Automatic annotation (TrEMBL), chain A:
PANTHER family: ABC TRANSPORTER, ATP-BINDING PROTEIN (PTHR43158:SF5), SKFA PEPTIDE EXPORT ATP-BINDING PROTEIN SKFE (PTHR43158). Pfam families: ABC_tran. InterPro entries: AAA+_ATPase, ABC_transporter-like_ATP-bd, P-loop_NTPase. Residues 6-231 form the ABC transporter domain. One of its GO terms (molecular function) is ATP hydrolysis activity. It comes from Agromyces terreus. This is ABC-2 type transport system ATP-binding protein. Keywords: ATP-binding, Nucleotide-binding.
TrEMBL record, chain B:
PANTHER family: GNTR-FAMILY TRANSCRIPTIONAL REGULATOR, HTH-TYPE TRANSCRIPTIONAL REPRESSOR YTRA. One of its GO terms (molecular function) is DNA binding. The keyword Transcription regulation applies. Pfam families: GntR. Residues 5-73 form the HTH gntR-type domain. Keywords: DNA-binding, Transcription, Transcription regulation. This is DNA-binding transcriptional regulator YhcF (GntR family). PROSITE patterns: HTH_GNTR (PS50949). InterPro entries: Tscrpt_reg_HTH_GntR, WH-like_DNA-bd_sf, WH_DNA-bd_sf.
Length: 301, 119
């Protein structure tokens, strides 16, 4: 039995005439890792700021741990939000940040933080404004992990972190999550890198939810069919097409939906090539300009 | 991990392969969910889903507080099932490709025999 941590209904945020978040409905269940994905300006950060009480919604109902997040200290205390460019007081060092962290996070594990500091080779005595971009990101990642908040948000946490450091982050996140389950929301552009960590994917585009599905369902849920144009067109005629490319007499069409064994054999007999579509490619197709956003609405209709 | 197919299915298949090949003997303990998750860098829920399919098929059994173990007779049942799927998974695509290349059934059989000798 899983408990609902976040419940949003018709959640809307406008800035003047611009609607950043447009009447979205979603829930976050306890102890799952979510991917909040989408292009720049899609509304991901705004949603996270609404959830953490940093912004007020213009319309809709929002409950976090059963209450409105803003002005409820007991709700805010159970959340940790790691922003892309976190600001710290002038003259602060990482050591100051880690010393102050337990005042805000009751589950703070200083020993775990020490291990992470060693993993990331972070100079804790250096002033934060003298740190490199990657080291600054490491400070945020360490706070996010060692705080063990029941609801943790990582908003593009690793600007400037190299591949080694990012993999340290993924490994430590998984290990610690396994031992101390909690709800994690990961917002990132590096979709291929995090795809396997996610249990559930929420894809946002222009303030709306384009896709809200378990990662296992999403994986392999689309297929690219390539070959002679006539054969490809015949094969994909009655299917939901989400992407289309062509070169001379050749065509490559991406469809939403799994192919069964019989269909695969038929495709092979027609001389068609079938290629898997990764989560990242699927998202490019769904949020790209060509045929954006037709699938989930069609399903809802 | 192969991106095209659900990862929990790949976890199931990998454990099945280990049992068929004998890397995991009957009665042996299999790694824990968290060990699978951190080793493959996947979500523990995904690993659990993969292992639970084996529990449902009685290939693996859970012993409360101890861990998960390969059941007796698991290997025979897996081999039997894989044999039943063999034609659809391997033979059918092979014939399709052979026909495309103009190889008849005797040539195909001869090719299989020669490969067998070489390996």
């Amino acid at each position: 039995m899983t408990a609902t941590v976040v419940s949003a209904k018709g959640l809307t945020k406008r800035y003047g005439s611009f609607t950043a978040v447009d009447a979205v409905d979603f829930t976050l269940e306890e102890n799952r890792i979510y991917g909040l994905l989408g292009r720049n300006g899609a509304g991901k950060t705004t949603i996270m700021q609404l959830l953490t009480g940093q912004l007020f919604a213009n319309a809709g109902d929002l409950e976090v741990f059963g209450r409105t997040p803003a002005e409820h200290a007991d709700v805010l205390r159970r959340m940790c939000f790691i922003a892309e460019s976190q600001r710290y007081p002038e003259d602060f060092t990482p050591a100051h940040v880690f010393k102050a962290a337990p005042w805000f996070f009751e589950n703070w594990d200083a020993e775990f933080a020490e291990r992470l500091i060693a993993d990331f080779r972070l100079p804790v005595k250096r002033r934060i404004k003298k740190l490199s971009r990657g080291q600054l990101s490491a400070v945020g990642v360490i706070v996010g992990l060692a705080s063990r908040a029941p609801l943790t948000f990582f908003d593009e946490p690793y600007l400037g972190l190299d591949a080694v450091a990012r993999h340290i982050f993924y490994d430590r996140l998984l290990e610690d999550y396994a031992e101390h389950p909690r709800t994690v929301v990961l917002s990132t552009h590096l979709i291929d890198e995090v795809a396997n960590l996610l249990e559930h994917v929420i894809l946002i585009d222009e303030g709306r939810i384009l896709l809200d599905r378990d990662a296992d369902e999403v994986r392999g849920s689309a297929t690219t069919i390539a070959g002679a144009r006539a054969a490809v067109d015949a094969f994909t005629a009655d299917r939901p097409v989400i992407g289309r490319e062509g070169l001379g007499g050749l065509a490559s069409v991406t469809i939403d939906g799994r192919l069964d064994q019989a269909e695969r054999i038929r495709a092979a007999e027609l001389g068609l090539e079938l290629a898997p579509v990764s989560l990242q490619q699927l998202i490019v197709h769904l949020t790209g300009t060509d045929l954006a956003g037709s699938t989930e609405q069609e399903k809802a209709a | 991990m192969d991106e095209s197919r659900p990862i929990f299915i790949q976890i199931t298949e990998q454990i099945e392969n280990d049992i068929i090949e004998g890397t995991l003997a009957e009665g042996a303990q299999i790694p824990s969910i968290n060990e699978f998750a951190t080793f493959h860098r996947i979500n523990p829920a995904t690993a659990l889903r993969g292992v639970n399919r084996l529990v449902d098929d009685a290939i693996v059994e859970k012993r409360r507080g101890i861990g998960m173990f390969v059941t007796s007779g698991a290997r025979d049942r897996l081999v039997e099932r894989r044999r039943a799927e063999f034609a659809a998974t391997y033979i059918r695509p092979l014939i399709v490709e052979a026909e495309k290349l103009g190889l008849d059934i005797d040539q195909l059989a001869a090719l299989i025999r020669s490969e067998r000798i070489e390996s």
